[in-house]
Amino acid sequence: MDILVRNSQAASIYQAFVATGEWLGVDESSMPTFIMGGDLPEYRSVQRLKGYDDKWYIRLCTEDSYRISVDTKKIQVPHVLAFNSVLVESEFHHNTLDRRPYLLTDEKIKFTKDPPITFPVFIPTIPEYIDSCLDIIQDMDGIGHKLPRMDMSYLDRYLGFGSPHQQDKLLAKVKNRKQLAEYFAEGERRQVERMKRIMERRVKYAGGSGPLMEIPEIGPDNYEYRLII
User: What is the pTM of this model?
Assistant: First the structure.
């Protein structure tokens, strides 16, 4: 679990966790592989903790490491763990006819299977987090892009970045409009190349007796939504 803390308070918060006797300070090598940041520079200012029950791991991430302020726009969520892929900000749902991803207001959709918690949990809004990812990608000057690019890929899968309607909504909300527009254009180029390769393989396996099939225009009606978590 990543917890964003103010740069000036990171050391004292870390010490307070250790002082409870329930948390142990650890280095990167002690973290499970699936939550490791590796040697990527964007995590150079992270402090790590492991619960003595071995069930919880925490990374205290400073504002510098995420390029985002604690005082940024936030939204409250029901729990620190999500069992389903649930979209809290319904205004960014890409298609009201397709209920995926689920909305927090959907009936019979549980955000988590864990017992209720007694403290509030806040996460950055979608536009704020997109700005954070884009800032890291830009600031790292060609290195250490794996994690923010992976997060952008997940957002693409959930929100449908290929839809012009979605693009317009997000571009109106973010600060890094030029970068995001370039990211959208790059995604569309990759999608066109992917479809070309698919069509070429189909022709090849069909015997190559005719011209390539026409490649449909990329748009909201034929964009490939890969909604996974």
Answer: 0.76
